[in-house]
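quick one, 398 residues, struct below
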Amino acid sequence: MSMQHISTTPFGRRQVTYGLLAARALAEAPLPDSTPDKWALLKDLTAARAAFGVSDRDLAVLSALLSFHPQAELGGDAPTIVFPSNSALSERTHGMAESTLRRHIAALVRAGLILRHDSPNGKRYAARGLDGTLAVAFGFDLRPLVLRATEIAAAALAAREAVARLKRLREAVVLRLRDASKLVAFGQDEHPGRFDALEDETRLLARMLRRKLDAADLEALNAQVVVLLDAVNAALSSVKTEDMNGNDVDSGRHIQYSNRLPSDSEPSIEMEEGDPVSSAVPSSVRVEPKLPLYLVLKSCPDLLDYVPQGIRNWHELVAAADFVRPMLGISPDAWAAARRAMGDTAAAIALACILQRASEIRSPGGYLRSLAAKAEAGSFSPGPMVMALLRADNTRAV
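---
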C-alpha cells in the first residue's frame, strides 16, 4: 500500500462542501496527453473571465501562481502543484495584502481553476526523495487548468466573437445615426421646420449611445435607428418631389440667361492667355441655392486648394469655379451652357463636385454638358452630388 496520500479536504475550520467534493473529482482525473502553454491559458481566461465568474484581480493572483511553475507548459511529467509562501506570493502580486490574497485564491478555487492540497499543519511546502526529486508537495494544484484547457479555449473564442459582434453592431448604429443626422441637417437647411420632429428623435437616439449598452440594448437601438433613417429618407423624397413639381416656377429665374452669349459671362481665349481684363463672373443675376455653403465646401475641400483666402459667399464660389474650370479641360462653351441651364451657383457647385471626383471622371467637360442637359429637362439638383461626396467621406473615415 502506498504511503503517499494527497488530501483535498481543507485544513483548520474550513468545512467540506459540495464544491470541494467536485474538486476532488478533478484531482483524481487523469491528465490528458496535451501540455497547454500556461500563459496562453491565462490569456484565454482573461478573455472568458465572465464565463468562469472570476475578476481581473483573481486572474492577477492566478498569474502569480503560474509564475511559480518552472515550465512553460502545464501537464506532462512535470508536477502541477506550486507552493509559494504568502510573502513570496505577495511580492509577485505587487504587495497585495494576505487577506486580499486569501479572498482571491478562494474565488479561483470556487471557479474550479485551482485546487488546494493542504499539508497536515496547513503549511505549503515540498518534500524531496533520496534522489533529490520532488516526492510530495502541498500547496495549490494547477491541474484543473490542464483538464479544462479545451473548455477555456472555447469560452475565450465565444467571448471574442461576442465582442466583435458588439463592435460591428455599434459601428452600424453609429453610421446610420450619422447619416440620419446629416440628412436631417440638410433637410432643415432646405425646408426649415419640416424636420424638427426627426431632428429631436435623432438627438435622443444619439444620446443613448453615450451609455455602455449590451448586445440586446444595441439590437433594440439599431432597430429604432433603421426606422428613423427610413423616415428621414422618406421625408427627403417627399420634399424633393415638391421641389420638382415647382420647377416651372423656379425656371422663371433662369429665363434672362436664354439670350446671353457665352462672351457675356465668360472670358475669351485671348483673356485667358493674358488679357488684363478681369475674368470674374458678373453677379447681376443670382440664384439662391438650397444647399448651405459650408456643406458644399465640406464635401468639396479640393476647391479650397485654389483659393487660399477662403470662400465666404456664393459669389466667391462662382468666381473660384470659373478660375478652376480651364484646369479641368472644360471649354468656355460647356461652362456657359451649364450656367445658362443651372444658374451660376448650381453650376459652380456642380463644377466643385466634378473637381472633387476628377480622378474618377474621364471627361469633365462632357460630364458637365450631360448635367446641363438634365438641368434643362428639369431633372437636376446639385444636392445629391454633395450628399454622395459626404457619404463617401464618412465611409473612408470609418
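DSSP finds 19 helices and four strands in the chain.
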